[in-house]
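request received
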Amino acid sequence: MEGDSRFPALISHLPYVGGASRPDNSIAKNGDRKLENKNKGFTIIEVIIAIFIISCGLMALFSTFSLSIRHATQSRNKVCVDVIADSMLEGVRAHRYGEPKPPSWEKPRMVLTVIQGKISQTTFHIKVKCKNQSFIDEKINKDYDYVTIEITWSEGTGVGSRGIKRMHSETVPVRRGLD
Amino acid sequence: MPFAFLNNIKKRKSQGFTFAEIIIASFVALLLMGIVFTIFFYGKRIYDYSSYSYSISEKAYAPIIWLKYELMETSLNTIKVYPDEKNKKEPPGVSFESAHNPGTGRFEFSKFGAPKWSKHVFYTLVPAGEKQLGNHKLKTSDLIRWELKLQGENPIPFSSEILPSSEMQKIPEANRRLILKNVIPPLQYLGDKKKIDEYGGFDVFFVRKDTKKGEGIESKINPSEITDENTRGTSGTITNTELIKVEITVLEFSSTTGKPNAFNITFMVKPKN
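response:
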């Protein structure tokens, strides 16, 4: 028999690895194929395929770990965003209708986190937009407005998450005379 | 002879392993063990990182919810922050009046629609002694919530004249609620003399505003108590807002590595009444 039946032409020219010797033609002639395969060892193609599969498995495993860190960070950031958005809504509630927008509203909020001794700081950028501007400009004579709070931040931890920008947005109606 | 190969196997079995085979087998076993241990330790590290990342923000979230809703329901004039200019030796904390009835779970109103102020609520940082946290021995405190019932139902809100340091000892343990554990008291140092008060603490401020610059200014004085005396040194462009700013920092040490985990967050509330 010449080579493996699956890759007849290719395999016959390939070297054998793992200390295996080429198949003995006399045994093959006797028809004992099982014995022949046992002595044969792996071909270089089989070894490469096996290494490739193991590498894929390991990569999948490591990416799962990294995904776990990313999700934990995302979850923590979501808690921060909820708290910041609530604070901003309170700030909007405390704002007198028609008064100019305080610059402190759009001041970036830093959240300090130390995990296993590693200090990280996530910066949350805030933008406050008003639909018809009457809420922050007394010259505009309208009695209602819609305030949109946009919070953007970048997920800083975990493979593949670097630089990913996230945004949380909330819109609330405001009316003159309710403050 | 059809079964001649069996003799070969028997012969091979009695031969044992060659030195080269043992070396190769050991090398392969070491390599496999190395891979397995790397995966295990890396996985363990990731698990610790993820679980502390979740738990530390969750720990901070519980007191945020408590404080946010209680401060929302109170009256701004009744809020007192400790320590302040007059009471510098008081433990850090805050007190305010509440009309919340824990029995019914409702905010109580009189028949005229005015809140029935029935108690003063205190949040106080209480020293919890020295604790071994991971590899570090340090002083810690607990954030405790406790109440003082008022005589009758008061239609007019007022701030508490009672200082937490004098009254809290009289409150039975059962009536104190632990809100947050392992809060670092102010000016606490770690073993290596590294000041870590920026990682620990509980702080409450009244937010004032510079109308010229639009900047928020932190103050310990309630807007209702602002006088010419205690605003001395500030320009006339500073006005009050109705906002309260609360800063919470949770600190804990990893049980396996002893490394610190901390989470610091600030939020604002506007009392409704």
